[in-house]
Amino acid sequence: MTTPLDSEVTEGSSTQRGEIRFVDTTFRDGSQSLWAMGIRHGMMEALGGDLDRAGFDVIEVPANPIFFKKMVRDLKEDPWETMRMLARTITRTPKACMGGAGGNLNGFGTPTPAVLNNMYSRRLAEIGVLNRAQLMANTGDQITRMLPTAVPFARELGLKVAIAVAYTISPRHTDEHFAETTRQCTAFRPDAIYLKDQGGLLTVDRLRTLLPAMLREAGDIPLELHSHCTTGLAPVVYLEALRLGVRTVHCGVPPLADGSAQPSVLDVARNARLMGFTPVVDEERVRSVSRRLAAFAAADGLPVGAPLRHDLNHYRHQIPGGVISNLRFQLAEIRMEHRLDEVLEECVQIRADLGYPIMITPYSQYVATQAAINVASGERYGVVIDELVRFARGTYG
């Protein structure tokens, strides 16, 4: 496997290739992937202003219903006050959340009536904490049933729209499948489409055939890349994506980068510059944010993102980066953290039993929850969660 720099660009190259822009994931996916959504109101309030002035194209905020549940249940904080604070603190940069204008108030459990979802999304927009809806195109029914209503509703709220094409590996998830999904998404004329590699499964070699196929279908709609460092490959995958034509990538600020989160914006910016690109980000300001985040992590005993060893087993269980930290946290709460490997192995079996659903919200949570119950009880499917019953009935996809 060659790298994007092989026989192409060396340090000090004068080749100029244009600007590279960044979507910041620190407060949302960084916290979800590394701190089990444990970032606090005060931390974001202290750092939000500098993130706002750092030159990001978009800043993700934790406005998802699952974050609201975490804030109330574990952090004992008022999520609506946190949303109002983020709206006051981040005023220059558009703010986004995954599932905006299409979220589920029950955290992807029993489907919530559309009127309640719409009230929730409308309130986020009214507060000023939501400027871009990041909608999912994971399954055929989301494209045919959800997007035709969610996209116009987001436009009604004055939001930009980015549609995520979620990546996975299975016999049916070919380059042609993802190209066709991209083509279907273009019919909604979103402001952006992004390849969402929630499991960190992409390799440089796969990207070289997959990305050109998606770029052809996207046409004049910008294509972004969102991946996780779970297998250790995302940083070099990002550089190859830049070489192939992507100009916006999703990154985090250390220590809420690397590990099971996104690549570090500082690392990607430095390497992109060596390839002849101009990173549009205030790196000194980002370094200041990084130092203060590291101090918060040290004070509260929170994990620090670091590069991970390449583990082929991840391609078997495919637990996403945004789920693994919560799985560890919840297993520790019931004193089962030492059985994580057993739970992951059971995830492999359950995914096969279910016909290989894509491992992304909500399916990854259902698989992991059922796996933990099977391991804890010692009996496979002795107790079956309601969501798997609904899945079997066709409620989800």
Roughly what fraction of the amino acids lie in strands? 5-15%
- Tally of alpha and pi helices: 16
Tell me the series of helices and strands, N- to C-terminal: EHHEHHEHEHEHEHEHEHEHHHHHH
Indicate the low-confidence ranges by residue numbers: 104-110
Average pLDDT, to the nearest integer? 90
Rg, Cα atoms, Å: 20 Å
Description:
This protein is α/β, with parallel strands linked by helices and 397 residues long. Helix content is 49%, strand content 11%. It has 16 helices and 9 strands. The protein has helices at 26-34, 41-52, 65-75, 79-89, 114-127, 140-156, 175-186, 204-218, 234-244, 265-274, 283-300, 314-317, 321-333, 340-353, 363-377, 386-392; strands at 18-24, 58-60, 95-98, 132-136, 160-166, 192-197, 223-227, 248-251, 277-279. It has an 8-stranded parallel barrel, surrounded by 6 helices. The radius of gyration is 20 Å and the shape is globular. The two termini are 36 Å apart.
Précis, in short:
This protein has 397 residues and is an alpha/beta fold.
Annotation keywords:
11% strand; single chain; 397 residues; alpha/beta; 16 helices; eight-stranded parallel beta barrel
